[in-house]
Amino acid sequence: MNQPSRFSPTRERLNANYLSVIDRIQSAASRSLRHPNSIQVVGVTKYVDADIARWLVEIGCHQLAESKPQALWDKASALTDLKVDWHLIGHLQRNKAKRTLPLISTMHSLDSARVFEQIKKDSTDRSWPLKLLLEVNVSGDPEKTGMPASEAQSLLQTWIETSKQFPALSIVGLMGMSSLEGGVDRARRDFESIRNLRDRWESEYKIQLPELSMGMSDDFEQAIAEGATIVRIGSTLFN
Fold first, then answer.
1. Alpha-carbon Rg of the chain, whole angstroms?
2. pLDDT tens track of the chain, all 239 residues?
3. In the 3-class helix/strand/coil scheme, how is 30-51 assigned residue by residue?
4. Is 122 exposed, middle or buried (0-12, 13-18, 19+ CB in 10 A)?
5. Which of 38, 53, 107, 190 could anchor a disulfide with 45, C-beta 3.0 to 4.6 Å?
6. Cβ-count burial of 127 within 10 angstroms (0-12 exposed, 13-18 middle, 19+ buried)?
7. CA distance from start to end of the chain
8. Residue 105, Cβ density class (10 Å: 0-12 exposed, 13-18 middle, ≥19 buried)
């Protein structure tokens, strides 16, 4: 079912917004002495209907994300004729894993050991890669989702110990959000904390965690300054 759209841009407006986001990413990357191609844009389509999501793909954004599995099911079904890499950025209920996992290339929101066990159970026959990111709450903000760092580290250790049994599953990095309070400076500190966790675990476990999914419409430039490799953009595209 095509859900009602919170935003209803024209195709021309959507195209202009997308080009503006790309330009801002390029500028933020340049200021941080980074190559723009090191940063992936994921269009978050949760507030628009499938027709507008289709426009976004046709404009050139082939990485789309939903926060609710049911909405992802509906949009993936509506866009089967297009090349789309679907990302899940919200909590995955265990009873929805079996239907959701075959549709996605990346899950940003791995937020508990119980969910990870369910993913392993429902991926025993998977032959194509599923990239997983540990969702970490570094701000301590109760309004934000994600695990404490200690819990995320424990889950990472579990994956390292069992990874050979599940070759299609790869933990490739961390995902996090900045605090609701504190503005730009606080956002940068939160993103820096996520990057520092990643760097520490790479060193401690001698593994590569190349992806940092950090930054949304209000703070993606600060996230890029702190090393984001994936930015999740929604309202800025569709306003």
1. 17
2. 455 578 889 999 999 999 999 999 999 999 999 999 999 999 999 999 999 999 999 999 999 999 999 999 999 999 999 999 999 999 999 999 999 999 999 999 999 999 999 999 999 899 999 999 999 999 777 778 899 999 999 999 999 999 999 999 999 999 999 987 878 899 999 999 999 999 999 999 999 999 999 999 999 999 999 999 999 999 999 99
3. HHCCCCHHHCEEEEECCCCCHH
4. middle
5. 53
6. exposed
7. 23
8. middle
Name the token pair of 54.
């289709």
Angle between helices 50-59 and 11-31 (to 10 degrees): 50
Q: Are the C-beta atoms of 211 and 230 separated by less than 8 Å?
A: yes
The residues that bridge with 173 in the sheet, in sequence order, are 133, 211
d(CA 178, CA 216) in angstroms, rounded, equals 9
* Tokens, residue 29: 């990357």
The backbone region for 155, taken as left when phi is positive above 0, alpha when psi lies in -120 to 50, beta otherwise, is alpha
- Judge contact between 54 and 7, C-beta under 8 A: no
CATH classification code of 11-238 = 3.20.20.10
**Three-state SS for 206?**
coil
How do the domains of the chain map onto residue ranges?
A: 11-238
Q: Strands (DSSP E) along 45-128, which ranges?
A: 63-66, 85-88, 104-110
Q: Which amino acid is at 199?
A: D
- Rounded to whole angstroms, the Cα distance separating 52 from 110 reads 28
> Quick check: 123 and 143 in contact, CB under 8 A?
no
